[in-house]
Amino acid sequence: ARGAVAVPSLSDPSAPPSGVSCSGCGAEMQCGDSDAPGFVPAEKYRSLLSEGPAGLRGAVCQRCWALAHHGSALRLRLPPDEHRRVVSAALRRPPRHGRGPLLLYVLDVMELPDPVLPQLPALLGPDVPAAGVLVVGNKVDLLPADCRGHLGRLRERVAAACARAGLRGDALVDVRLVSAKTGYGMEGLVSRLQRSWKCAGDVYLLGATNSGKSTLFNTLLRSDYCKSRAPDIIDRATVSPWPGTTLNLLKFPIINPTCDRIFRRQERLKEEATKTEDQLSIEEKKYLNQLKKQGYLVGEVGRTFQQQKSSTEIDFDPDMLSYSMDEDPRDLHPKKHEEREEFTHNEVKDARWCFDTPGIVKEDCLLNLLTEKEIKLVLPSHAIVPRTFILKPGMVLFLAALGRIDYLEGEKPAWFSVLASNLLPVHVTTLSNADTVYEKQAAQEFLKVPMGGEERMKEFPPLVPQDITLKGIGTTEAVADIKLSSAGWVAVTAHAEEELLLRAYTPKGTALVVREPPLLPYISAIKGARIPGTPAYRTKKPPSFVENLRSTGSG
């Protein structure tokens, strides 16, 4: 991967494979090849082995350690075909318990039309005995509500994308909208799974890299969907923006939703729904406020059958890492592991499992060109604040140095609303200055991404143009989104019947998509007053909504 850090490490090709999976990514732990999944430096590997069977179990590989602690990805050889092979082989296993698995397909609603969804029928193939696909539209917390009922419209967009990909009828079990990160919609998803699928067979999580699949796995692990003792035994998947972090199959046992358990769960949910924010503890309020900063839609994921441990971060528990927070990966004297709990034979002999799978790599994706530092700036981690600009013909809008839109021809001004990570700069200039701005400022602080100056731009693909013609439908409703690969998109709003000629650019080899109808058609209404002497409007952040608390009447 580009820009990944190189950590000095010693390999020992003569050491036998461990047969133990990394608790972060699921790859087999080994010290023979530092470029392959599951690598642990030889000294560390031997010291963990010397502690007996529990030594390696629960440890993470060097790559997961680097991701969890530094957000850095070590160089790794894993071709896209290998991702598909692992997923495909898993899905073609003979049905257990006489029934094929349920597939939970996770897509990022901001990435619609999802580039991997059309590949799903081919990945399944006629010989995969799947019982159906439940599609989960994730990351809805990042999108501002442009009008009442925006979630219903988003759900329709996801369902339409499924139909275009050939998923319809009995094959499509349901479409749910959630935020795996803030918990919004997760209790509803658990209830839906327990009501319809019960404990009939295994469940596989599928999805493109960066769809939030591993975060969903981690959230389900801490919910009523998982056997009550399992979260204490099973470590969470590595949650990181770096594409393809789940390398092999991680799993947890699904709880059997008996009538008694469903009744107790419903009682808990009813009781929680009577609470207001004022009745929460100081810790709960602090956590809730943190989630509100991260997303517009927030929910709490509770446990009915076990006392939930308070957690204020969706992240790795450092105690579960093979390397402690202050320990160097090459330290020869690891801290002693505590004795770890294990499942009993009876707990898992007839268990149904929820499997996480490797993220399917998106081709023609901008993220494949970026370093881990750049990816952290490009992928939104907090609620997106829309930025609207009014442009006349002859004006140009830059989204960092990753995308550009030229307004070439039109009779009247038009509105361009940017929906992208709040960390990415937007710059408006004239057509006559645009090329000079890009040449001088690309990879500099002014345009921010890519980063690294002239040397970085020597290897970065040039921007390539695509002409787009749009016809306005009115000053309150966008006609289309121009999606600049995974950098974000620009919703274009123009006067009724007004014809616009635009030229949009993305880096060579990445996908530029004109999305009609737009995802948030009324987004230009979410803006403040015009900033005098500029084409920009003041930004306006809509309030957050908490789903399973009683409203006190305030936003």
Describe this structure in words.
The longest helix is centred in the N-terminal third of the chain and has 15 residues, at 150-164. The strands form four sheets. This protein has a six-stranded mixed beta sheet, with helices on both faces. Strands 8-11-15-14-17 form a five-stranded antiparallel beta sheet, with no helix packed on it. It has a five-stranded antiparallel beta sheet with strand order 12-9-10-16-13. It has three domains: 17-77, no CATH class; 80-300 and 346-363, Rossmann fold, CATH 3.40.50.300; 368-542, no CATH class. It is 24% helix and 18% strand. It is an alpha/beta fold. The chain contains 15 helices and 18 strands. The model is unreliable at 1-8 and 307-340 (pLDDT under 50). 45% of the residues are buried.
Shape: globular
Lateral strand order in the biggest sheet:
3-2-1-4-7-5
Count of individual domains: 3
Oligomer: single chain
Helicity level: 10-25%
- The name of the CATH architecture of the largest domain is 3-Layer(aba) Sandwich
Query: Looking at this structure, what is the CATH superfamily of the largest domain?
Result: P-loop containing nucleotide triphosphate hydrolases
Quantity of strands, as a count: 18
Keywords: Coiled coil
Coiled coil: 259-286
GO molecular function, one term: GTP binding
Domain G: 203-253
Describe this structure in a few short sentences:
This protein is an alpha/beta fold and 555 residues long. It is built from 15 helices and 18 strands. The strands form four sheets. A six-stranded mixed sheet has the order 3-2-1-4-7-5, sandwiched between helices.
